[in-house]
Specification:
Its cofactor is Mg(2+). By secondary structure, this protein is α+β, with helices and mostly antiparallel strands. The chain is built from eleven helices and 19 strands.
Length: 340
């Protein structure tokens, strides 16, 4: 950096904050380090006693924080998102649509380990809405070696750190099981819960079937809804290991491929996920906890299904850490540790 007369500093980059103190009014930085001095800034700088300024000298092989910040955004940014204005080496990523946030965690960690730059984000595999802040990035020093930013680009490998999978409109079919509901002994209280959760997405319910506990009947109900054009099947109840809980058998008998029966999540350990046919139509078996617990494994899996992801068993197997809902008196999900 070098010292110059303030009147000669137009177009130069400040190397430090300039503080303005007005008794009883303000004590704050009127200009931040990295600010590019303009003609209209000169009277303000003189009014705070700055006859001379320390400015950044352009050096071969060095980048200003804002130049480097743009490179960092290029490493992170993807379709369905846009950058905020660059300020003091900082850029935020903003979602352009509702969808599922995807994060390349390994790449994120590798870039953060390089030093002098940082990326902080939301957790991946959770929903975001248009206008939501996805991540914030920053170059730490005022200037950074161009070589270091080139290395960061190599780590990025040309594939963005973040992505958004827009939610897909689906047609859902509900199969409510249980002799007690089928014979009218009790009221169906499961459907309203499922319908409320589906209402958060673009879902049309094409039909609802109520079945007794006979697996043949449950299988028929699933196939009927598939015939009506359902591309998402949700079966409620009959998911435990009790001899008379036959929903898993009924789902298997449709010819659907079982991905997993059971998951390391509480509530929701008896959850079942399967896919039917060449179109890989999701078929879920929802245990009773989905009806009475505020948040369960269904809340973790549904957004990914609505984004069109085809989940594998390993996607469920890794949910154990963070898979314990604490049933807080006031639920703040997803702003909590559940699923993370």
């Amino acid at each position: 950096m070098k010292l110059v007369r303030t009147e000669d500093a137009v177009g130069q980059v400040l190397c430090h904050d300039i503080t303005q103190i007005i008794k009883g009014v303000t004590k704050d930085a009127v200009f931040r380090k990295g600010h590019v001095v303009t003609e209209k800034d000169i009277p303000v700088l003189l009014s705070v006693g700055k006859d001379h300024l320390y400015i950044w000298e352009k050096e071969e092989g060095m980048l200003h924080e804002d130049e480097a910040a743009q490179i960092l955004y290029d490493i992170c940014g993807n379709t369905f998102m846009h950058p905020s204005e660059i300020k003091e080496g900082k850029i935020e990523l903003i979602a352009d649509c509702d969808g599922l946030l995807k994060v390349d965690t390994e790449k994120l960690n590798r870039i953060n380990s390089l030093g002098e730059m940082m990326i902080a984000s939301r957790h991946g595999n959770f929903p975001v809405k248009a206008g939501d802040k996805i991540a914030g990035t920053r170059i730490i020093p005022l200037v950074i070696e161009a070589e270091k930013m080139e290395h960061a680009k190599k780590v990025g490998g040309g594939v963005p750190v973040f992505g958004i999978l827009p939610f897909i409109k689906k047609r859902a079919g509900l199969v409510i099981t249980g002799n007690e509901v089928f014979h009218g002994r009790i009221r169906d209280t499961f459907s309203p819960v499922i319908e409320e959760k589906l209402a958060e997405y673009q879902v049309d319910i094409v039909g609802k079937e109520i079945s007794d506990d006979q697996p043949e009947r449950i299988t028929e109900c699933i196939q009927k809804l598939l015939g009506q054009g359902a591309d998402l099947i949700l079966c409620t109840g009959g998911m435990s290991v009790d001899p008379d809980d036959r929903t898993p058998l009924a789902i298997r008998n449709t010819g659907a491929e079982i991905v997993s029966y059971g998951a390391p999540v509480l509530p929701g350990a008896m959850f079942l996920l399967a896919y039917y046919g060449e179109d890989r139509i999701p078929v879920m078996g929802l245990p009773g906890c989905v009806m009475y617990a505020r948040r369960t494994i269904f809340d973790l899996v549904l957004p990914r299904v609505m984004a069109g992801e085809i989940l594998e068993k390993k996607d469920l197997d890794i949910l154990g850490e963070g898979g314990l809902c604490l049933s807080c008196p006031v639920c703040t999900f997803p702003n909590c540790g559940f699923g993370k």
